[in-house]
From TrEMBL:
It is a peripheral membrane protein. Belongs to the peptidase M16 family. UQCRC2/QCR2 subfamily. It comes from the Eukaryota. This is Cytochrome b-c1 complex subunit 2, mitochondrial. It comes from Parascedosporium putredinis.
Amino acid sequence: MISRSSVARLALGATRSARPFQARGFAAAASGSSSFETYDAAGIKVASRDAHGQLAKLAVVIKAGTRYQSVPGLTAGLEGFAFKNTTKRSALRITRESELLGGQLNAYHTREALVLETAFLREDLPYFAELLAEVLTQTRYTTHEFHEEVGLAIHLKQLKIASNPAAISLDAAHAVYAKPNIALAADGASQGAVAQWASKFFNEVPSSSQSPKANATTYYGGEQRIDSKVGNAITIAFPASGPEASVLASLLGGQSSIKWSPGFSLLSKISASTGATASSQSFAYSDAGLLTISLSGSTASVAQAAQEAVKALQSVAAGSVGKDEITKAIANARFDALEKTQSSKESIISVGSALVHGTQAVQAADLVKSYSSVTPAKLQQVAKTLLEGKASVATVGDLHALPYAQDLGLKV
């Protein structure tokens, strides 16, 4: 039910908008914390930080990403049913109430987590805390909604799901929407307020459930080639994690952070000489990491860029990259990591995923310390280890002209 304070705000909304413009004073900057405080409320793991601003976010992070789905499409299905009809409220009512409060509702997923996220004025925390708890425990998984909306969005192909989607979705929701599998993350709300409303509204979330299981990540390497007339692309990936992997991805780079400058990265120079689009990224998961090099463009440019990209990695392994470039890469990687801790969305996913996977959430101070320990020698050793191990190479396009992994000097 919508809270008393929120009802009052809804009733006064039109009056406020009709008032003539009045001069406003400058707001004083409020001091807030950049680190999350973690605690338990109603048996649920909670993390919150308060910037003492006017806006807040509250999200439920569920251990139900695509990695953990028992049947393909279930994660997308649960995402599609979020904030629709519940036993208490219709989808229309949820939409209208949220709009009148100026709030935002969002649902999305990553490889490891399903996230139900709300954004609102901080005084409306009680309403949105109640709404999230209601979505977790009282969503109505109806067959007609699946066929008319959810099913069309996720394009499920397996007949056993399409034949009885309501039952399958309900079973899946009961399995994953349980206290051991969820975490509540708040940004812009006080610990006391979050704990108070979480304790009140999240008591009905099941206390025990069979936790979604996934085999431990195992890296095998390999090569896949797909013929395509649309375009040409090659992705080269290696198993890598930690600050060294992020720095190596920054050193390889591909895109400049300085306007009108091609950048210092090795791949940016390759892009300039070959005409191909090149970039490198580092992906971090709960138990693994992946370093990727992605190339796209014309057949000739991609083929040449792939050769040059491997040579660039070999130059790092040989220790022939200048100290200035490595210093720039460390600074750039550290900035990107710290920027993510300031980003509300990124930080909510990070701290929520850490809680549901039983790991420690990374704080800003720890990030600074970890990147300070990266040295040219460590970076050289990481690059050398990657080249000595197996790579994963995916090639799409004109397969008669694009090189094989062996042609690039890579082991698969």
